[in-house]
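Table 4 source record.
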Amino acid sequence: MSYGRANASGATLTRNRIPDVSPFSGMCATCSEGCLGTCEVGKSAYRGREVIYPQPFGAVTSASQKDYPVDFSHFNIMGTAVGAEGIEADSDRAIFPAVNLETEIGAAHKMKLALPVTIPGLGSTKIAKDNWDGLAVGAALSGTILTIGENVCGMDPDVEITGGRVRRSPDMERRIKTFQDWYRGYGAIVVQANVEDTRLGVLEYAIQDLGVEAVEIKWGQGAKDIGGEVKLPSLERAMQLKSRGYIVLPDPEEPNTQNSFTAGAFKEFERHSRIGMVTEESFHQRVEALRKAGSRQVFLKTGAYRPADLARAVKFASDARIDLLTVDGAGGGTGMSPWRMMNEWGVPTVYLESLLYRYLKRLEEKKAFIPSIAIAGGFALEDQIFKGLALGAPYIKAVGMARGPMAAVMVGKTIGRIAESSKVPTEIAKYGVSVEQIFTGAAKLRSILGEDIRRVPPSAIGLFTYFDRLAGGLQQLMCGARKFALRHIRRDDLAALTREAAEISGIPYVMDLDAEEVERILG
């Protein structure tokens, strides 16, 4: 079985010259003189560091192509023909629309979600900024969490910084207000901070000036183990961001760099964020400072780091009584993570969640506080959501997903633009030619909003419709498992399809499932 896809990918706009490929390097079995360099190695000979990242940079979301030995497809959801949990075992009452998908997170202060989904960490990337209206309005109407990711204030061209601290950021204000204008009592807008954000006082600004009630400390993400990166198209922009404390490459203050850029030797600068340095003492100090600043809820997000770091996250979150710990496994991603890194680093989601379950169970046995937990890393559809909730049950309260929601927003925006132009292609026209005819979620939104639906951008209707599909599919899966509320989902609602999946997860192999009950039934 091949786990990696080396040296050529549509993500980097590269390909091998011939179909015969070395399984070790990913290079063509015969590398021919005269080739224009279509593979990653060849293209790197003339585009260099540019080929580290997915292309076209800033206009796509990306996730790992690596075929991990065990993923969620190696588990199946178990149904049953008897009983019901969370509702009366009556065929007229135990129907799938009766499944309750609400969940609650938080320690001292609770937050309700209408759907067990969070959209984690969409920050300063161009694709997040360009699609923010759809994300914010759609998430607010759907009752999910939406997190404003790192570097938004620092990247805001119009930000006002005094004494090294943010005083005003129009972009941050817009992002928060867009969600709050459509907030209906479920979900929340959350602001996240990395090293640079912390130095700029972004979270304090969001809490005290913009009324944000939930903030998130970021240790990392599943897509990469370094800080975020974006491309800068002008020398002026590169100089501006270096002056704000970012790492900018090549150095825009160097005369030779300026001359090379002016001459067209390269067309973009890279802006990078720093990596954090976690210590237990500084973490607790930061949590306490944010609570004193007025935050009702403090979250922590960690990435696909080695098991010891996961243990630190779990223990620190427990001791600090964090309101939500999000654990992001390798394989997912939304931003511009280095392509090879996205494929070849970190602990994949199933492995990471299996470790997470063990660590949380151990703390629970010691009577320690167990924070609300969200698992992220490659989730897109309802069966994956069910499996993510079940694999870490009873601790997992929500699933983090960003590429799926972003895709729904972008498709919604595109279809809205097409409908407005009156040039609807045949594939779409079979459903109708107006927004309300094409989007099935529009009818439900009209029943909620009335004529206000006209103010909802098609991108947001796309996200709402996608989430409505996830809700319906999840209700059906839960009904078949006879679980009519999320709190009833358990690990024994899954069966492992391979011995290796069973060994990693602790979920019984399908041929061993229910062995004791079978013996009892058969006598």
